[in-house]
Amino acid sequence: MADFIDSEAEESEEEQELTDKEKKKLKKIKAIQSDDEDEDDEDEERMREELKDLIDDNPIEEDDSDGSDEEGQNRKRKKSDDEDELDDGLDEDDYDLLEANLGVKVDRKKHFKRLRRIDDGESDDDDAGVGVGDAREAIATELFEGGSDHEEEGEPTQRSEAEAMDEDEEDEGEYSDDPDDFIVDDEGRPIATKKKKRKPIFTDAALQEAQDIFGVDFDYEEFDKYDEYGEESEEEEEDEYIDEEGGEERRRKEKKARSKKTSRKSIFEIYEPDELKRGHFTDLDNQIRNADIPERMQLRQIPVVKLPKESPELEEEAKWIFTHAFSKGTISQQEGEGGRNATKKDPQSTTPKIKKCLEFMRCEHFEVPFIAFYRKEYTQPELNINDLWKIYKYDEKWCQLKSRKENLAKLFEKMRNYQTDKLMENIDQPIPENLRVIQNEDITRVLGVNCMEELRDVYQHFMLYYGPEVPAMQEATKKKEKAQAREERERKRQERLARRADPENQDEEEPEEEPIEEEEEPEEEEIEVVKQASRGGTYSLCCRAGLESLAAKFGLTPTEYAENLRDNYQRHEIQGEEEQDPITTAQEHFSSIFKTSEDVLMGAKYMVAIQLSREPLVRSTMRQAYQEKAKLMVRPTKKGMKEIDENHPCYSIKYLKDKPVTDLSNDMFLKLYMAEQEKLLTITLSEDFDGMTTVSYLEEIKNLYTKDGFSKNVQEWNQLRTESVELAYKKLLLPLMRTELKEKLLQEAREFVLKACCRKLYNALKVAPYSVEFPDEDEDEWDTSSGIRVLSIAYVPDLSQAAFASVIGTQGECAEFIRLPNLLKRKNGWREDDKLQKEADLEALRRLMTSRRPHVVVVGGESREATMVQADLRELVSGLTEDEQFPSIKVEIVDNELAKIYANSNRATNEFRDYPTLLRQAISLGRRMQDPLIEFGQLCTPDEEILCMRFHPYQDQIEKEELLEGLYLEFVNRTNEVGVDLNRTIQESNVANLLQFVCGLGPRKAAAILKTLKQANHRVENRSQLVTVCHMAPTIFINSAGFLKIDTNSLGDSTEVYVEVLDGSRVHPETYEWARKMAVDALEYDDEELNPAGALEEILDSPEKLKDLDLDAFAEELERQGFGNRSITLYDIRAELHHRYKDLRCQYQSPNPEELFDMLTKETPETFYIGKLITATVTGITHRKPQGDQLDNANPVKNDDTGLWQCPFCLKNDFSELSDVWNHFDAGGCPGSATGVRVRLDNGISGYIPIKNLSDQHVANPEDRVRAGQVVHCRVTKIEVDRFSIECTSKSSDLSDKNNSLRPSKDPYYDSETELKDIQTEQDAKKQKARQTYVKRVIVHPSFHNISYSEAEKMMQSMDQGDAIVRPSSKGADHLTVTWKVTDNIYQHIDVKETGKENAFSLGQSLWIDNLEFEDLDEIIARHITPMAGFARDILAFRYYRDFDGGKKDVAEKYLLEERDKNKNKIHYFLSASKEYPGKFMLSYLPRLRAQHEFISVTPEGFRYRRQMFDSLNGLFKWFKEHFRDPIPGTPSTPRGSNRTPFTNQTPTLNVGGIEAIHRVAQNLPQHMLHSLSQAATHTPAYPHTPGAAAAAPFPGYGGAFANTPYTPSGQTPYMTPYQTPRYQQGHPSASPQQHRPSSRSRGDMPPPSSAPHGTPRGTPSSHQGTPTYRSTPTYGSGRPSSAAASVEPSDWKRAAEEWAKAKRNPHSNDGGNWGTPRSEGRNTPRDRGTPREGRSNSRLGTPHGTPRSMASHTSTPRTINSPHSMVESAGGGDATPLYDEN
Hints:
Elements: H1 2-39, H2 41-51, H3 59-62, H4 66-73, H5 83-88, H6 92-102, H7 113-128, H8 133-152, H9 161-168, H10 205-214, H11 220-240, H12 247-263, H13 267-270, H14 273-278, H15 283-290, H16 295-299, H17 312-327, H18 347-363, H19 368-374, H20 385-425, H21 440-447, H22 452-466, H23 470-501, H24 514-527, H25 538-544, H26 548-552, H27 558-567, H28 582-587, H29 597-614, H30 616-629, E1 631-636, H31 638-643, E2 656-660, H32 668-677, E3 681-685, H33 697-703, H34 712-765, E4 790-794, E5 803-808, E6 814-820, H35 832-852, E7 856-860, H36 865-883, E8 891-894, H37 897-903, H38 906-911, H39 917-930, H40 932-937, H41 960-978, E9 980-981, H42 982-987, H43 989-992, H44 1003-1016, H45 1025-1028, H46 1034-1040, E10 1044-1045, H47 1048-1051, H48 1072-1083, H49 1092-1101, H50 1111-1120, H51 1127-1138, H52 1153-1161, E11 1173-1184, H53 1188-1192, E12 1197-1198, E13 1205-1206, H54 1218-1226, E14 1233-1240, E15 1246-1250, E16 1271-1280, E17 1285-1289, H55 1292-1296, H56 1312-1332, H57 1349-1356, E18 1364-1368, E19 1375-1383, E20 1386-1395, E21 1406-1409, E22 1412-1414, H58 1417-1436, ...
Parallel strand pairs: 4-7, 7-8, 9-10, 15-17
Antiparallel strand pairs: 1-2, 1-3, 4-5, 5-6, 11-14, 11-16, 12-13, 14-15, 16-17, 18-19, 19-20, 20-21, 21-22, 23-24, 24-25, 25-26, 26-27
Helix pairs in contact: 1-8, 2-8, 7-8, 8-9, 17-18, 17-20, 18-20, 19-20, 20-21, 20-22, 25-29, 27-30, 29-34, 32-34, 33-34, 34-41, 37-39, 48-49
């Protein structure tokens, strides 16, 4: 067979060679004649006269202009030419004469078509070698010469030389019936009128497709003509006639060539380059089509380079591929064979097989499928087909790496030669110190590089030391090469002169090639472009400054340090002693560039850092360590915090802290990268990481560059060394390593996505055609041996669009289709019309199935309605089975993604131009059932529609070419496994697309084969015709023959050619003899009856006879004969003879419930899962009807307010009588109690929310919460895929899911702490922004401005003191802010609450400042602002007012001390405005050694100081001078006590007798009274509404001053422990308010003093001797009861107890004193929350007994520990500055 192939190939090559030779000969002859024409002008004139009318392009139109033409040219036609005949055309005699002389049949219908025939005839006869060809060439040359002259003279009616030459250069022997190029209009443009003449060409579907693509008629011959010969002829003309003296002639020829090109447009000028490339009609495509190399090998980015079989490179490459492809794992965790945890292959057995595969690929050009199927002995079991493809890809990487290594090695060689030449110029001088001579080791290191990173490292190292010399080296090399070229030309010239001088050599000299060489030299230089080093770089600057010697003193060379780093110990120690410190050493290297020691040392450190960072070993060592131990940190941006919700793929990884990159898995880094590209995240790779022995790698590598020693010099030099290492690592290496690591992680993640895409396509292609058998049916209609018929239905979930059903025949044709407009309507719908229309559609389907009898029915899986259609069709089939005795036909649902893409493709549009899109979908669905591989192949077109399929959510992140290559490889694998029937590709256009995936072929070669077969109208009857008919070259034939099957059974007796039965099997032609041998041996034929062909046919009928063969012995014999190990091949042959081309794909399986759920909902487990937060639309409420027992035990409830009855189940509450409720039950109108809410999702899934999951609060009737059509948020808690339903929860707690029990789980390295901080920061920022924002208002007032806080203060700067501005408030639209100027740079902002607003922009009818009401803004300014501004002016004008920088205490204290030093006999005091508390003025005074600071508040009523109001500044200071030593109100007199006795930690001032008196009182009390006292003293909580000084029992012992103050025990007060009392005598009040000493708070929830009415002090006396008059206001509204500790002796407790008992016995005596018993007349105790307070009206008038308030009372009411009061912190020395606004 191999001999046959070789012979056929030689024959084909001879034919091609003869054709080319003859064509070139013809071109040369024409070129010679054309040159003669230029030299002989007389011949030109004569020929023009003779042929002028003969080649006239438009003789009929020429009649009108004959005279003018002749007059203008002053020429006469020859006498022998008849004018009338020329007008009408040549007669029959002329045609006969031409045919007799030329031997060619001339077309007599067209005047100038015969010129085309002449040329074509010449081509035919030339190819055949006819002797009369020379005469025809002479005639043709004369014709073309005349045409050329006419063109040059500007006559538009004459044909140009270029046109004639183009016609002459047509493909061999093929005629063209197209006259377009010969018939022109008046302007010389071709007239295209006869395009229909080309119609016979388009028997080829591919050409028809090309016509549709380009929109014009054409054929391949035109492309071949322009591509192969047009430019080649010009080049040959120029090359053959170039000589030293022929410059002028050459220029004239080039000019003529340019005119030829423009005379007629080439194919490249007519069509866009993209169109030519898309149709594979470029020069490169033609070259690929004709080359005897598999097309995919040629299209590889680095084409397969052929090697000799024994090349040592194969061994080296095999080891490299094993290391990088099969041994080296990934950085991140990846699934599959390439992952880190994948099973490693054995290098001993795998490497030789990799080498053998490389030998097949690179030496014999065998493609992967051929090796996988027909060279299994050399690959299995270590290598499968995916491993072979990996070897194929890594071979490309190896070739690229090897090429770059060689180029870099050449660069090193050039530099070494340059250095050698430079040193040889001055051979006696020593080598300069700074010259780094390239050694053999450097070149060896280049050739030993194993990856692109290492190659880049070596190149960077080269450029560091030799970069500045590269330009000079290149210039020197160029001069050297030019000199060598000149010497070579001179040598050749001398040889030619010698030959000319020799009389024996008088032959024609060959043209010189010097001009060509000179033109090519620059091109060679352009190939080797080296990136020049920056001459102004810092390193070059340091070198010029001579710092190299200082850098060398650091002690280690970069190579030595690199070895230390690699071994992780100080392999090389720093030698020598540091006699000088670095500063002194640096002074020796001062220069004009570096003038200080610091600059010199900085330059030296930079040089060392650069040298270390460029050392290749340093880079590779650090790179490996960084990639193994680097950690990742992820933070979201502000945009990301908003957009990355729990439905975002990065939700669980948006906060990562110190996550090792080795823990990244699959496509995780790709998700992070995409989010970073969208500005949602920031990814940071760690700077430092764990070292080998310490926690810091950086510290480890620093220690490797230090010297042991403790002297000062050693330590200083070590400091410089470590700084250099740190600079090299952080600034130079770390950015590079981060970039490389990110690229690798991204590449690995993309590889994972690519594999996932290929795996999904593989799962789709591995499905075999649908097969079904009907053994019980005898009719031929149900026979499936020739294929199946499919009834397919496509629809869209839109009732307004009709569905389509089509019947696909066994050959994939659409046999019949119907339109089904009402298929989606429901049979059980409530509308009669819908039922009837649906039944009509089903009846139409029934008739179609009855007539066409499909073997299977498929429905497109567009939505959930597909299940309804499937149920309807199953019912229909069931009826046909019963009524029409149909077999049981299955109804399947198939994914329609492929069908939708195909329906919108260009191929479908061209094939089914008049069909609607849905019908095309239905056709595609049916064809997919017949053969998925063929239907998916429909998308593999130049439009690349296969990329429209969604294989993975992130497939767009892969390069289009890379993804397309990966997907096409799946088609290649599956197509070659299945095989392609070549004759079927000619008959069925949808099958032809698979031919490109056959091993060895591609789109170009496959199209050429189809074109050849269709044009020849030839059916392939055996594989030998692939060579004889299709002209397949040997290598392509070997690769593809076994995968191109020929259905020998269908040929039958229709052919006379010998039919080889093995051509219909996977047996390769190279092993036909072995198959025949096996058949003969199995049948045990004798030699005389030997008939291998008959034996094969017989063995195919009874293949079981093959099982007795000893194939192992046969394999040993073959190996002995030199065929190699072919044991697996023999077993494959036996299996193939059992079943020829058995389909190895998996049988079709109906989708399981989960697959069906994903198909119809278009969801995946990644997009729809338990816990997902979704939105759903409420469709209704579910109820549970009450059963009999429940109805009997029902208890209707009557509403007392409305008098209506309510159903206990459905909660309907409009029944007027009880009997109506029972009637409601009996009539069945009660739907029952609500059980939940029905919802529906957008993807068609139905959901259910149980009533218990509807809300966190109890819901009796869901209709109170939701209504139909409402959109609700909920979470998925359960998924039932078989029912297409889910269960949800809409509880607020579940939606927020603070425990993360339902949300996607977080990454183990998730940084929750940082997330909480960011959330808190965001919330604070929102609050701050909310405070700063305001709503613009529409208020007309001169003081109102729509400005912000800062703008208001800026405006105030130019206003007078006391002026006010009203502006919007940040608190909302119902607030305003009044800003008034206290003094310069101090402004008070007062909040105004609005009520009674008409809208959000208008002014409220009532304005409130605290508890004061105002009608409008003018009243606020007049009553509130203006008085305060006046009082503030009084202070500002006060003689002791000072500006202490905004009321700063330290400034005030300093000033007070200065004043005291001036005058120590007085107490100095000053006022200053407070900037911290606008509206307050700080009163600073120095009573003794420590300054005191208090605040005076300005109010509309006056000045408030120490909770007292003063209407004048003089009155305030008069009181101040008298009482400044009094304790400040609100300051605790004693420290806070223990929890048990919080009031004081001091023992009460009680004598023993007093304590005994208390015990006696307690013993004499009745039991119930003692119990009540105990309860009141220990367990009484402080209720907020306990009345304060509302009323009090008249305790005689307490005096009239405290008549209204009851005793109120606290919850914290110990049993019978008296309160601490002031130390003054009863009845002798002090002039100072000492009773204001407050007690410690007993509870942390004490209300602030601001709850008291604004502007009025609490409990102040109405009058006092010598003090200003101010109002007395009891402590109302404080929320706490007030009680007093009177200034009484201890013996008064007995009297107090007696009075208390009397009050208990007389409950009507006092409302407020009845603490332990319920009030009379059914009233509740004041402890109950929310109870209206009693006796408020009496509190102002006195007690119920009418006890008047004493006019000589003490200054204030003593307080209990529960009384509200201001808390002031004591600052040790009496600094009692309030911590809050006293307002």
